[in-house]
Amino acid sequence: MSTIACVDVGSTFTKGLLVSSEGELLATAAHRTTVDTDVLDGLDTVLARLAEAGHVDAVRVCSSAGGGLRLAVVGHERAISAQAGYRVGLSSGARVVHVASGLLSDEGVTVLAQSRPDIVLLVGGTDGGDQSALRHNGDVLSRCGPDVAYVVAGNSEATGDVLASFLAEGRTATAAQNVIPRIGQLAPSSAREVIRSAFVSHVIGGKGLSKGDRFAGLVSGATPDIVLQAVELLSEQIGDVLVVDVGGATTDVYSVVSDDPAAEFVPTDDVVGQWRAARTVEGDLGMRWSAPGVVDAATIEQMSGLTPAVVDAANQFHDDVGYVPALGAAGNEGRSIDEWIASTAVTVAARRHARAIDHADSVRSSARDLRRVSLIVGSGGVLRHAEPEAQQRILAALTSDHVGGWLLPEGEPAIAVDKYSILTAAGLLAPDLPQVAITLMRAHLLP
């Protein structure tokens, strides 16, 4: 029996699992992420602790350290190609830091560069459609764009020439298949794969996280991208899945949904088309740094339980991100407030994921029907460290939030908490050891 160490080098903690080739969880370990010295220091500490439980035969790593993957999108029309690029970026595990549409000007290039992307995704034009914007933007960026990696995933007839213009200027650029080969069809797989490769090849080594190339050689992809791969694999086994990850600064939502011909029609003005696997990131919803954003969202959406004590606590959490409720009566109150913040963040993030909304950057997301979800998985420190009853209360809110007509889970879906970062490990195993990943998830995420 061989063993595989699956490690997530996060922004705060490096977490590792030792998994057998039969899908058994043998050990877990964690250490703070050592960005102040070399991330390999923390990684090697985690590996040494895992090795205490048995020999480590192989190591697989994902990372969100150093800010993770920062991606800018340049498209033709904001309602079509820019939106498609935005979605592809999120599904690739990126933080989308800038979205531009139309013909880039010098000022537009300056604004794009100020967003400090690691990768620029260039899209535009369906196959057989308009080529002008893709060609223009490729020409401008190849000459004076930021010195980062570029991914060209637009009109197939123009892609070769655009790629050549980047390479002629000594730029790092890779072609992918068109993300919108025709109106109403979104084809993200090729672009996701190229972005993943570019992240590993050109971004990880350039963040100054580690000396030498060992760390870059270990990393398989950005952590959110790896998690989404696990959610997709899990969905193949059990049907529609919803995952909500509540962090200190953001709340990430992942879902994989399938079409149901018998379901009632859900109106949408989405010209990009629905997609099976999706991820959204709510940068204003979190347990500590973004706790005031949870209060603001609860106020706007007129949610119950918002008291002056909650408002004061949210501001305290923002100012002291390391705050942990103490024991005793005050601690119980603090835990109660933590539970309210978590429940509200989960609910609002799922609402936004399910409904069509306009984001701050004016990119419109499309509605997703989550009513047939058979499994809800919660993750994040607030859920991992909560008592089982509190875990159920926080996540059960998602099955009863239908007053506003949200397309949230109905019935009685199974509820689980990813206590050991099983999804991250499963995502690292999924590409070539899917059965090991499935066995691991069935043991720890299914009732």
- Computed over alpha carbons, the radius of gyration is 22 Å
Task: Bin the strand percentage.
Answer: 15-25%
Strand order of the largest sheet: 3-2-1-4-10
CA(first)-CA(last) distance: 26 Å
Low-confidence stretches: 261-271, 358-364
The class by helix and strand makeup works out as alpha/beta
Mean pLDDT: 88
Q: How many strands in all?
A: 15
**SS field, number of helical segments:** 15
Order of helices and strands: EEEHEEHEHEHEHEHHEHEEEHHHEHHEHH
By oligomeric state, this entry counts as: single chain
How many discrete structural domains?
A: 3
Helix content: 40-55%
Shape: globular
Summarize the entry for a quick read:
This protein is α/β, with parallel strands linked by helices and 447 residues long.
Keywords:
15 helices; 3 domains; globular; Rossmann fold; 15 strands; Nucleotidyltransferase, domain 5; alpha/beta; 447 residues; five-stranded parallel beta sheet; five-stranded mixed beta sheet
Structure description:
With 447 residues, the protein is α/β, with parallel strands linked by helices. The strands form three sheets. The chain has a five-stranded mixed sheet with strand order 3-2-1-4-10, with helices on both faces. Helix 8 packs across helix 14, helix 8 packs across helix 15 and helix 9 packs antiparallel against helix 10. The longest helix is centred in the last third of the chain and has 26 residues.
